[in-house]
Amino acid sequence: MSMLNHTNHAAVEALCAGTYLESYLDTMESLPDDLQRNVTMLRELDIQAKEYLQELEQHSAMFLQGSSTEGGASKKKSYLCTQRALVKCQEIGDEKLALLTVIAEHIENRTRMLEQYRENLEPGSTREQEREETVVRKEPKQVEPEKVEKTGTKRQRRSKPSETQQEETKEEKDKGTGTKKKKKRKVVKKDREDSPLEFAIDPNEPTYCLCQQVSYGEMIGCDNMECKIEWFHFNCVGLTNKPKGKWYCPTCRGDRPNVKRTDK
């Protein structure tokens, strides 16, 4: 199986490499034509700039020579020619900068296209898969500790009512009454409609019953000493009043309402 996966992966890589090479050649094939036009224009501008520089040197020399021997007309003419040559050189320089900007943009666009081809044509987009796998792997690691902490907290909560319930069950058998149980059951006199989840619950408060909620309303204790849950809300076990005699929870009694299960 691993050899088959390796073969498929190699085939995909070869296909992607061939596709990328074809795109690379297509992209680079037209690049010289675009650059050649701009480079040719740059060379023409260089030639013009050299001509104006030569003209500038000549008129500058004539201006300096005519300043001492000839009149003001020749000096003024040389000055105007020099000024015109300087303006032309500046214009040519601006055009060359614009062409260089265009050349740089061409190269940048082609480079960006090649980068995009490379990212899209990588086999299976390995970078995206690695990111997704990293996210998927991190999510359970972030959730699992919370679940473990919550589960551990619930186990600690159950241990407290378990010890208290055993003491109260013994006292109840001795007295033959459910007075103490009744006091413990009426921790919060609320109907089931007032869900305990709507209130701010102390994380250290123990949980009871099949619903695994905190104590509220009237509660009844299972008379089975080995019952793991021990305390139940009236509403969760279908009671409205405390039954007479011993009472066993649905888990302990099975299908018989008032008989303790023999498999316990």
From TrEMBL:
<comment type="similarity">
    <text>Belongs to the ING family.</text>
</comment>
<feature type="binding site">
    <location>
        <position position="222"/>
    </location>
    <ligand>
        <name>Zn(2+) 2</name>
    </ligand>
</feature>
<feature type="compositionally biased region" description="Basic and acidic residues">
    <location>
        <begin position="118"/>
        <end position="152"/>
    </location>
</feature>
<keyword id="KW-0479">Metal-binding</keyword>
<dbReference type="InterPro" id="IPR028651">
    <property type="entry name" value="ING_fam"/>
</dbReference>
<feature type="binding site">
    <location>
        <position position="233"/>
    </location>
    <ligand>
        <name>Zn(2+) 1</name>
    </ligand>
</feature>
<feature type="compositionally biased region" description="Basic residues">
    <location>
        <begin position="178"/>
        <end position="189"/>
    </location>
</feature>
<dbReference type="InterPro" id="IPR001965">
    <property type="entry name" value="Znf_PHD"/>
</dbReference>
<dbReference type="GO" id="GO:0008270">
    <property type="term" value="F:zinc ion binding"/>
</dbReference>
<feature type="site" description="Histone H3K4me3 binding">
    <location>
        <position position="231"/>
    </location>
</feature>
<feature type="site" description="Histone H3K4me3 binding">
    <location>
        <position position="223"/>
    </location>
</feature>
<keyword id="KW-0862">Zinc</keyword>
<comment type="function">
    <text>Component of an histone acetyltransferase complex.</text>
</comment>
<dbReference type="InterPro" id="IPR024610">
    <property type="entry name" value="ING_N_histone-binding"/>
</dbReference>
<feature type="binding site">
    <location>
        <position position="209"/>
    </location>
    <ligand>
        <name>Zn(2+) 1</name>
    </ligand>
</feature>
<feature type="binding site">
    <location>
        <position position="249"/>
    </location>
    <ligand>
        <name>Zn(2+) 2</name>
    </ligand>
</feature>
<feature type="binding site">
    <location>
        <position position="236"/>
    </location>
    <ligand>
        <name>Zn(2+) 1</name>
    </ligand>
</feature>
<dbReference type="GO" id="GO:0005634">
    <property type="term" value="C:nucleus"/>
</dbReference>
<feature type="region of interest" description="Disordered">
    <location>
        <begin position="118"/>
        <end position="199"/>
    </location>
</feature>
<dbReference type="InterPro" id="IPR019786">
    <property type="entry name" value="Zinc_finger_PHD-type_CS"/>
</dbReference>
<feature type="binding site">
    <location>
        <position position="227"/>
    </location>
    <ligand>
        <name>Zn(2+) 2</name>
    </ligand>
</feature>
<feature type="domain" description="PHD-type">
    <location>
        <begin position="206"/>
        <end position="255"/>
    </location>
</feature>
<feature type="compositionally biased region" description="Basic and acidic residues">
    <location>
        <begin position="167"/>
        <end position="177"/>
    </location>
</feature>
<dbReference type="GO" id="GO:0006325">
    <property type="term" value="P:chromatin organization"/>
</dbReference>
<feature type="binding site">
    <location>
        <position position="252"/>
    </location>
    <ligand>
        <name>Zn(2+) 2</name>
    </ligand>
</feature>
<dbReference type="InterPro" id="IPR019787">
    <property type="entry name" value="Znf_PHD-finger"/>
</dbReference>
<dbReference type="InterPro" id="IPR013083">
    <property type="entry name" value="Znf_RING/FYVE/PHD"/>
</dbReference>
<comment type="subunit">
    <text>Component of an histone acetyltransferase complex. Interacts with H3K4me3 and to a lesser extent with H3K4me2.</text>
</comment>
<protein>
    <recommendedName>
        <fullName>Inhibitor of growth protein</fullName>
    </recommendedName>
</protein>
<feature type="site" description="Histone H3K4me3 binding">
    <location>
        <position position="219"/>
    </location>
</feature>
<feature type="site" description="Histone H3K4me3 binding">
    <location>
        <position position="208"/>
    </location>
</feature>
<keyword id="KW-0863">Zinc-finger</keyword>
<feature type="binding site">
    <location>
        <position position="211"/>
    </location>
    <ligand>
        <name>Zn(2+) 1</name>
    </ligand>
</feature>
<dbReference type="InterPro" id="IPR011011">
    <property type="entry name" value="Znf_FYVE_PHD"/>
</dbReference>
<dbReference type="Pfam" id="PF12998">
    <property type="entry name" value="ING"/>
</dbReference>
<keyword id="KW-0539">Nucleus</keyword>
<keyword id="KW-0156">Chromatin regulator</keyword>
